[in-house]
Design goal:
Elements lengths: L2 E5 L3 H12 L5 E5 L5 H10 L2 H4 L4 E5 L10 E4 L15 H18 L4 E4 L4 H12 L6 E3 L2 H16 L6 E2 L2 E2 L7 E2 L5 E2 L2 E2 L6 H12 L1 H9 L6 H15 L4 E10 L5 E12 L2 E5 L6 H18 L6
Parallel strand pairs: 1-2, 1-4, 2-3, 4-5, 5-6
Antiparallel strand pairs: 7-10, 8-9, 10-11, 12-13, 13-14
The protein binds nicotinamide-adenine-dinucleotide.
Nicotinamide-adenine-dinucleotide (NAD) binds next to helix 1 and helix 4.
Length: about 300
């Protein structure tokens, strides 16, 4: 892949750019931000790590949205993060204005791009990008489930002592309090996680996963999480860049899958060079389906707050 643009050179944007460069996921990463000089400074700082990590990816920064010209992937991390005590929905009104302006730039300068939305509330803002661009759903994704699943895997590793490499987890639904970790599909090298973790401990892990972002925000105090979020975005870009056909939980527009239409939420997605190849509709049991539907209702409440297009 030639070029990835990251709009928002804040904490998540910077971490994503560093990982993309270290892994040489693309030839060029451009960071764009409204803060004067900031993206240029971030880009220089990252590129000066090239001698250590031995990468040839060029990293540049700009205050001009035109710098995203012809990017194949545009990652949107611009906007305000929540503060302790706030929910992700509390930043919707501010961030939707930010997103609308960026979407117009993306349509203008990178009309063939695949967009990955990170800004919260990510489900409703992914929906907004799809609505405002008018693009096919294949090219509009949101990052949430890769992060939530990595949090759950980390908690299972901490509980069992197993390597995270052997732990596979899946988290569906909206990226909020109503997210739906699905322990039934979580394994340690193919063995159901319930073989190793008692039901009450597993339920605690599920709840800690739901609260994973708030836990870090409460500990860090002046910033929300950005290391694992950056790594999660980089994993999605890598799947696109390397045509990997990876099955990743992503925010996608639903067109009948899981009984839902006209909504964006976290579902297992086949991701490859042209973005979303397929939404995998898992057969949820009654309890899982009820949780998924409750999560959908909560995302719809936020979507209803959007003004037309
Ligand atoms: N989806 C997820 O899993 C996930 C995880 C972590 C954070 N987030 C979200 O990502 C967003 C960014 O978080 P952060 O910690 O990097 O915040 P941050 O404050 O460090 O960075 C945000 C950046 O966006 C820039 N910005 C604002 N308006 C802009 C515009 N119109 N164009 C370009 N840049 C603009 C700001 O100047 C700032 O540098 C937040 O909304 C946060 O809630 C999502």
């Amino acid at each position: 892949m030639q070029k990835v643009a990251i709009v928002g050179a804040g904490r998540v944007g910077e971490t994503t750019a560093q990982i993309l460069a270290e892994q040489e996921t693309c030839r060029e990463v451009v960071l764009i931000d409204v803060r004067e000089d900031a993206p240029q400074g971030v880009a220089l700082d990252i590129f000066q790590t090239a001698p250590f990590f031995e990468f040839d990816t060029r990293v540049t920064g700009s205050n001009d949205p035109a710098a995203m010209h012809n990017a194949e992937v545009v990652v949107i991390t611009a906007g305000v993060p929540r503060k302790p005590g706030m929910s992700r929905s509390d930043v919707l009104d501010t961030n939707v204005k930010v997103i609308d302006g960026i979407v117009d730039d993306v349509v203008r300068y990178a009309p063939q791009a695949i967009v990955i939305v990170v800004t919260n509330p990510v489900d409703v803002l992914t929906y907004r990008v799809w609505q405002r661009t008018g693009w096919p759903r294949e090219r509009v994704l949101g990052q949430a489930g890769v992060l939530d699943a990595s949090r759950m895997a980390a908690f299972i590793a901490m509980e069992t002592g197993f390597s995270t490499r052997d732990i596979t987890t899946i988290v569906l639904g909206g990226h909020g309090d109503s997210m739906v970790p699905v322990p039934r599909f979580c394994t340690v090298n193919g063995i159901p996680v319930s073989h190793f973790v008692a039901p009450d401990r597993l339920e605690e892990i599920v709840q800690r996963t739901r609260d994973g972002g708030a836990e870090i925000l409460a500990l860090r105090k002046n910033s929300s999480a950005y290391d694992a979020p950056g790594a999660s975005v980089a994993a999605m870009v890598d799947a696109i860049s390397h045509h990997r056909n990876r099955l990743l939980p992503c925010v996608a527009l639903l067109d009948g899958e899981y009984g839902q239409h006209d909504i964006a939420m976290g579902v297992p997605c086949l991701i490859s060079h042209s973005g979303l190849q397929q939404v995998v509709d898992l057969g949820l049991n009654a309890e899982e389906r009820a949780m998924f539907e409750a999560s959908a209702a909560s995302v719809r409440t936020d979507i209803a707050r959007l003004k037309p297009g």
